[in-house]
Write a structure and sequence with these properties.
This protein has 189 residues and is α/β, with parallel strands linked by helices. Helices cover 53% and strands 13% of the residues. It has nine helices and five strands.
């Protein structure tokens, strides 16, 4: 903003959610990602994975899977090249709807990830019941707490469970070399 400078997403995303505009914004960003990827691939570049956030309201729209699949197909995006990121709060609202949606998205060639794991009311039950492809650990896991040994023990076990469940893991917001070294030793993808 010319008057207020940079405005944090934490300030405007809740307004978009309240008004329902977030659904249009999600779809617009998804289409932009597909358009960019098509251009990138047409230029002869090797395939890569692009992740796009999806809000709770967008996920709950009628024909969500069909609409996103149609956009993906219109741009001829290869299967398993697009990742849709859902926050754990989406799952907590209705895990049955989320589970069905994830299964349908995967059948249509999408990678599905659970973003910001550990930022709210994370439940190991989520890992047990959801067929997600990727678990993204929130930066809060890596903020130095009072006991680094306990912190790393929890992270190690979450990573081990995810690995045993064939879920890839990504640590977000890691800034320190010792954290990177620890995560590599612990098996974070």
């Amino acid at each position: 903003s010319p008057d207020r400078g940079m405005i944090s997403p934490g300030d405007f995303i809740p307004l978009f959610e309240q008004s329902g505009f977030i659904v249009k914004l999600d779809r617009y960003n998804f289409e932009l990602a597909c358009r960019w990827m098509r251009s990138y691939l047409d230029a002869g570049n090797p395939p890569l994975n692009v992740a796009v956030n999806v809000s709770r309201l967008a996920l709950l729209q009628d024909h969500f899977v069909e609409d996103y699949t149609a956009i993906k197909n219109r741009y001829r995006i290869p299967d398993r090249a697009l990742e849709l990121e859902f926050t754990e709060s989406v799952v907590l609202d209705d895990d049955g709807v989320f589970l069905d949606t994830v299964v349908q998205l995967q059948k249509n060639g999408f990678i599905c990830s659970l973003d910001d794991f550990g930022s709210g009311y994370s439940s190991l039950n989520l890992l047990k019941n959801l067929p997600i492809d990727v678990l993204k650990l929130d930066i809060l896991f890596f903020r130095q707490g009072t006991d680094v040994t306990r912190e790393r023990l929890v992270i190690s076990h979450v990573l081990a469970m995810a690995r045993d469940l064939n879920i890839r893991t990504i640590a977000e917001g890691v800034e320190e070399e010792d954290q990177v070294a620890f995560l590599r030793r612990a098996g974070c993808d």
